[in-house]
Automatic annotation (TrEMBL):
Organism whose genome encodes this protein: Zea mays
Keyword Heme: yes
Keyword line: Heme, Iron, Metal-binding, Monooxygenase, Oxidoreductase
Keyword Iron: yes
Family: Belongs to the cytochrome P450 family.
Binding site for heme: 435
InterPro entries to which the protein is assigned, alphabetical: Cyt_P450 (IPR001128), Cyt_P450_CS (IPR017972), Cyt_P450_E_grp-I (IPR002401), Cyt_P450_sf (IPR036396)
Necessary cofactors: heme
Pfam families: p450
PANTHER family, sorted: CYTOCHROME P450 71A2-LIKE, CYTOCHROME P450 FAMILY 71 PROTEIN
Record-given protein name: Cytochrome P450 71A1
PROSITE patterns reported in the protein's UniProt record: CYTOCHROME_P450
Length: 501
């Protein structure tokens, strides 16, 4: 097997914007320290290194990561201080675990830490040309500009309003179907379906996404390919950390799975791109322009946009959208619902708000969502406590009576946002490597949460009591590219607003 804890750890290092628990590769290979400016050239400048726990020969500190690396690293930080040095096999790694140090890295010294080490998995699955894993340089700057200015601009994200509203209505219908007769709903799976549908329709358009999301064998096969891709992106081959054990990846079948998944992915993306090239597209201001449409326009106008965007680069950027979007959006919604179920007063306040704003409506729309200040505070608090990716662990897990109101109570509190200016809340990172998909993720999560709270009353499926008079809910974490709830979030949903047939 592919050393799952280590795999997920290293994926986040290079793929995700990091917050108060920030790991950075300092040395990707056997680099020697720089020589000191000294008349004696044999003397080298030896800079002081951060403290380091005792490691093992060859393995270094890999054995300390455990099944939940982000928790293990938080524990190590408490024991050894806010900055420490680990050796993950052959890779020296610095762990930064305080908001002040994270601000130093991501703001004051942003440029120095903007690079990314080489990733064998990104080379093989993402054509070596995506944005998240790309080294800092001209290609990364131009490709990121395409994402920020064209794919994920506020205007383009707003054009997917219809997609979000339709998929939120479909989510409500699935919950109503699955909860008939008082049955518990496995909400985690339904939230993942919603996130996949929103991202697929935004990326590929309605026509291409229809086949991908359909129930025929071809649709199921395509969804499995994308699921396998997301799992592999969260895997680091053993040989990348321990070259002398590189043969393990072949023996365990990882090499074969990488090859088969890439071939299937490439075929899927080729078909989608060919279909888009053949069909007539909306004008530049059309509301039906999906990500592939936009990237093909950039490809056709490369001189105007300053980048030669080839077909493989279009494929890589689209895969970035899937890797960064689906799992993280679903996880944020999952933890928000779990926290609300375990905090009934907050649940009631959020429901009262959305039911007052959308009173008399058959469903929630984005005009309603724009008025839901308390729901927005709930989402911020959820992301503070449960950042989507494994190493985005908040510096403090303290819960206070005002925990759900910390983002309310005036303009200053409400203005605390996700854009990397407030280091008490950094689920999307900060600086040059900050995630450009903030508006897309935020809008998708808020629309679904508002719909679920409007249409249903919720409680944990377990009938046992936790000692406080509320049903208990298993909040155990399950490691992955994003940290999910291990139980699958079984909840009882009781309809509140009569649903359309």
């Amino acid at each position: 097997m592919a050393l799952e804890p280590v795999a997920l750890l290293l994926t986040v290092l290079v793929a995700a914007p990091l917050t108060v628990l920030l790991l950075l590769f300092l040395v990707a290979g056997n680099k020697r320290p720089a020589r000191a400016a000294s008349p004696t050239p044999r003397h080298r400048l030896r800079l002081p290194l951060p403290p380091s726990p005792r490691g093992l020969p060859l393995l270094g500190h890999l054995h300390l990561l455990g099944s939940l690396p982000h928790r293990a690293l938080a524990s190590l930080a408490r024991a050894h201080g806010p900055v420490l040095l680990l050796r993950l096999g052959r890779v020296p790694t610095v762990v930064v675990s305080s908001a002040a140090a994270a601000e130093e890295v991501m703001r004051a010294r942003d440029l120095a830490f903007a690079n990314r080490p080489a990733s064998a998995m990104a080379e093989r699955l993402l054509y070596g040309r995506d944005v998240a894993f790309a080294p800092y340089g001209e290609y990364w700057r131009q490709a990121r500009r395409v994402c920020v200015v064209h794919l994920l601009s506020a205007r383009h994200v707003g054009s997917f309003r219809r997609v979000r509203e339709q998929e939120a209505a479909a989510l409500v219908a699935r919950v109503a179907r699955d909860s008939a007769g008082g049955a518990a709903v496995g909400l985690s799976d339904l939230l993942t379906e919603y996130a996949n549908a929103v991202v697929s329709r935004a990326a590929f358009g309605d026509e291409s996404a229809r086949g991908l999301l359909g129930e025929f064998d071809s649709g199921r096969r395509q969804r499995k390919v994308l699921t396998d891709f997301q799992k592999l992106v969260g895997t680091t081959p053993v040989g990348e950390l321990l070259p002398w054990l590189g043969w393990v990846d072949a023996v365990t079948g990882l090499e074969g799975k990488i090859r088969r998944t890439f071939e299937a992915l490439d075929g899927l993306l080729e078909k989608v791109i060919d279909d888009h090239r053949r069909r007539p597209r909306s004008g530049e201001d059309g509301g039906d322009r999906d990500f592939v449409d936009v990237l093909l326009d950039v490809h056709n106008k490369d001189q105007e946009h300053g980048i030669q965007l080839e077909t493989n680069e279009i494929k890589a950027i689209i895969l970035d959208m899937f890797a960064a979007g689906t799992d993280t959006i679903a996880t944020a919604m999952e933890w928000a619902m779990a926290e609300l179920v375990t905090h009934p007063r907050a649940m009631r306040r959020a429901q009262d708000e959305v039911r007052a704003v959308a009173a008399g409506s058959t469903g929630v729309n984005e005009d309603h969502v724009a008025q839901l200040d308390y729901l927005k505070a709930v989402l911020k608090e959820t992301l503070r406590l449960h950042a989507p990716l494994p190493l985005l662990v908040p510096g403090s897990r303290r819960r206070t009576p005002r925990s759900w109101e910390r983002f309310l109570g005036g303009a200053a509190a409400a203005d605390v946002g996700f854009k990397g200016q407030h280091f008490e809340l950094l689920p999307f990172g900060a600086g040059r490597r900050m995630c450009p998909g903030i508006a897309f993720a935020e809008g998708s999560a808020e629309m679904a949460l508002a719909s679920l709270l409007y249409h249903f009353d919720w409680e944990a499926a377990s009938r046992g009591q936790n000692g406080k008079g509320t049903p208990s809910l298993d909040m155990t974490e399950m490691n992955g590219l994003a940290v999910h709830i291990n139980s699958g979030l079984p909840l009882v949903a009781k309809p509140w607003i009569p649903l359309k047939n």
